[in-house]
Specification:
Blueprint lengths: L16 E8 L6 E9 L2 E8 L2 E2 L1 E3 H7 L1 H20 L3 H5 L3 H10 L9 H22 L5 H8 L13 H11 L9 H9 L12 H19 L3 H17 L2 E3 L27 H11 L16 H5 L8 E4 L17 E4 L1 H8 L6 H7 L9
Parallel strand pairs: 5-6
Antiparallel strand pairs: 1-2, 2-3, 3-4, 7-8
């Protein structure tokens, strides 16, 4: 049931909201409207209070929750050493069912406990010890190869339920500064934040983990946290999304992200009209009907000098008196326009705009010299 006025405030720009879910809040019958959103900079619940949307970058989120994240780190360090000893060569050789199940039950990864009996009973301790040895102590093979042996793409795994969540949790326990944890939660959050690239079709588990681990390492470095804190961060973000906080990446681009474009959008705006006939007649006059290339009034260069015949007859028209300085309709003539090249035209309008003379004074010496 939707409360009255719940849809009065549409999502702000950048929020392509789906169907609003209105939840009652025990504050005198008031309501909050939530939109489940998926935008280029984040996925989550966006909470609307009037025209304000709760939104925060990862860096600000870490700063805000620094104390809690440090507590996570302290607790993890306290228990990690004992767990890491289980995965030494001697520890694996004497590993018992109880020790391994205790490891899965007592770690921060609660979902691992669901598979503890399945791993030890379906595969047996002999298979588990063999897999752990392959993962951690077969130094003659690269990590990606070892991972592919444990999770082959074209055959059943040697140990049922020994999946990526368990494998990467063990890697992180043994080498916490080198390996991050890739499980359903971290993958969901990282994908939604837009920091996890799409994998090539047919790529192996080992190849994918190396990519994921690089992404996690870069994210931890950018945020100034350890991989262990980053792992705790995924859980907190997921919980806060559900409580209404929209968290976006804000991390530097890696250069291999994918961005969605081409989505049909409808805009309603008010513009001051331009005379296409005036501009067309001015360009026809300046270029002698497209046969010549006039020089830019700012840099004094011709487009044809740089691009040859491709740019012959090409020029842009700049209004000497900007529309912002004119009230109401106005009659203009060709002399009220100036022939300018695209670069100078953009600079004339950049950061509030300036006159042709003002832009010429800003140009570096020699920039306007004829070639």
């Amino acid at each position: 049931m939707t409360a009255p006025g719940a849809r009065d405030n549409p999502p702000r720009d950048g929020w392509r909201g789906r169907e609003a879910l209105t939840l009652p809040v025990d504050r005198g019958g008031s309501h909050r409207a939530y939109d489940w959103c998926h935008s280029p900079d984040g996925l989550g619940f966006g909470e609307h209070h009037g025209d304000i949307t709760m939104s925060i970058t990862l860096a600000k989120y870490v700063k805000k929750h620094r104390r809690k994240l440090e507590d996570y780190e302290h607790e993890y360090r306290r228990t990690r050493q004992g767990h890491a000893r289980l995965f030494t060569s001697a520890g694996i050789a004497s590993l018992t069912v109880g020790q391994f199940e205790e490891f899965l039950s007592s770690t921060r990864w609660r979902s691992l406990a669901r598979n503890k009996r399945r791993i030890t009973t379906r595969g047996g301790m002999k298979s588990l010890r063999a897999c752990l040895t392959t993962l951690l102590h077969d130094s003659g093979k690269p990590l990606s190869v070892r991972l592919d042996l444990l999770r082959p793409a074209d055959s059943p795994p040697p140990l049922p339920y020994f999946g990526k969540g368990v494998i990467t949790a063990i890697l992180h326990t043994v080498r916490p500064t080198r390996y991050g944890v890739w499980n359903a939660t971290s993958e969901k959050v990282a994908t939604a934040l837009g920091i996890l690239p799409k994998f090539e079709r047919g790529s192996s588990f080992g190849h994918r983990y190396l990519i994921v681990n690089d992404v996690f390492a870069d994210a931890a470095k950018s945020l100034g946290v350890t991989l262990s804190v980053l792992d705790s961060l995924w859980w907190d973000i997921l919980s806060d999304w559900k409580r209404g906080t929209k968290i976006r990446s804000g991390l530097p681009s890696r250069g291999d992200e994918e961005y969605e474009e081409g989505v049909p959008q409808q805009h309603l705006r008010l513009e001051r009209s331009r005379s296409n006939t005036l501009v067309r007649d001015a360009k026809r006059l300046w270029t002698s009907g497209g046969k010549t290339s006039p020089r830019c009034e700012v840099c004094l260069k011709s487009m044809e000098d740089t691009y040859g015949n491709l740019a012959r007859g090409f020029i842009e028209a700049h209004h000497r008196t900007p529309f912002a300085q004119v009230r109401g309709p106005i009659m203009r003539r060709i002399k009220d326009l100036a022939p300018v090249c695209p670069n100078c035209h953009r600079m004339l309008h950049r950061r509030g705009g300036r006159s042709i003379r003002g832009l010429q004074e800003l140009m570096t010496p020699g920039a306007g010299d004829n070639p």
